[in-house]
Amino acid sequence: MTPRVATTTASTTTNLPEQLDVLLVGAGFAGIYQLYEFRKRGYSVKAIEAASELGGTWHWNRYPGARVDTTIPIYEFSIEEVWKDWTWKERFPGQGELEAYFKHVDEKLDISRDVVFNTRVLSAKFNARTDRWAVTLDDGRTVHTRFLSLCTGFASKPYTPAFKGFDTFQGVKHHTSRWPKEGVEVKGKRVAVIGTGATGVQVIQEIGPVVGNLSVFQRTPNLAVPMFNRPVEAKEQQQLKDEGLYPIYYKRRTQTYIGLDYTWTPKPLVDLTPEARRILFEELWVQGGFRIWLGNHEDVGTDPVRNDELYAFWRTKALARIKDKKMQEKLAPAVKPHPFGHKRISCEHSYFEIFNQSNVELVDMSETDIAEFTPKGIRTTDGVEREFDVIVLATGFDSVTGGITQIDIEGPKGTVRDKWAQGLRTYLGVSTADFPNMFWVYGPHGPTAFCNGPYCAVSTLPSPRSAFLAFILTY
Ligand code: NAP
Description:
Blueprint: E1 19-25, H1 29-40, E2 45-48, H2 57-60, H3 80-83, H4 95-109, E3 115-116, E4 121-127, E5 132-137, E6 142-150, E7 172-175, E8 190-194, H5 198-207, E9 213-218, E10 225-226, H6 234-242, H7 245-253, H8 274-287, H9 291-294, H10 304-319, H11 325-331, E11 347-348, H12 351-354, E12 360-364, E13 370-373, E14 377-380, E15 385-387, E16 390-393, H13 402-405, E17 408-411, E18 414-415, H14 416-421, E19 438-440, H15 453-456, H16 464-474
This protein binds NADP nicotinamide-adenine-dinucleotide phosphate (NAP).
């Protein structure tokens, strides 16, 4: 399968002065927005970006089936210049469309001219004499900046478990977040997918119909819910814009728990009759995506009895789509693996049906673990060796702190890595003591993985999230 190839071209030749007011690390939603704001206010600002183009997570995560699980227009910038003439094709856009969106953002806001692409920040050392951070890049340059803003997101450092014999495998293997731009041929191949998180679910349902054989290594079943994606007409979007709905949608994001256009109902579910509860669940279900979870009554997350009721509802839906009894129990067990919604729910469209194919097996890692990678494939602890042409590592990230601690950051009293090794300490989820004028958004103790990225990474409303932006802008 060959994903769409990016069209944004970016240069590494961006002029980078030795002295700056603000240096941003990363040019995804957060970095782009900050660059736009700081520049508008007359600060000297540049962003350093390891990728060759804008987009952050949407640049890196180009694995087959990568798709956002938040609907449009909630998942986008609320900058009028950007939204007024941008039109999406799908309710839940795929990675290729998001890549095109970032190109549009660049055309509108002229971001790339202040981004140094294909370059990594290696270290940042605070100089107490000058009150500046000396930031070194992997191209040998050093920049001295007053403010260091880490827009590194929560999932920029891939996690690959230390599998024994990992490098001995002779076939093709890729972590999903480092999927080659030119794609990987999986048609007719023997493929393994390790991991069944949001990424694993998307890869499995995408490649399942075309691979020769598929082995899914599952540690925890994914209580995935249907997305019910559909194409969206340009005129449908234009009408909402014409009627003045877009600013209302964006405002609504500021009023809900996780920055969507809907939220939990604060009344107990038990106040409804069993029949009314059932109808409610059905209504939320057919709306697709997270509604059944985050648009439900609050106590489905806090009352174990109501949570069981929701799990039972979900399970009935899942079982109806899985033919084999044993497979039913592995994918949708009678005893819930964890409270419904306490582990991030994923969205899918044909995930469960893939397991009805005769060429798809599920390796239940609660029964047999991965013992080692071999030159031909993977051997499990039961002694079975499976041979593969392609191994897909959908094993997630060194989340939340990893993007920051992979940089050697040294404040006046030591490194951030050493400090956080003793326990994560932050101020309002935007800074940490003894690292002066260093801030982040969408990182440790921020709403981060529990929030709609484009909103939470850029919010300029009075909230802890924007405390640092307000601080810098009024300094
Ligand atoms: P993830 O949720 O951390 O899932 C990693 C998977 O790998 C899990 O199934 C995990 O099992 C498994 N795993 C980890 N170590 C393993 C090992 N040693 N052996 C076997 N299996 C192992 O990562 P992700 O799926 O990439 O998702 C990360 C985050 O990215 C999501 O929470 C979401 O916020 C975001 N995301 C969003 C979208 C979207 O918007 N549509 C799509 C993809 C990802 P356990 O569950 O047992 O730990």
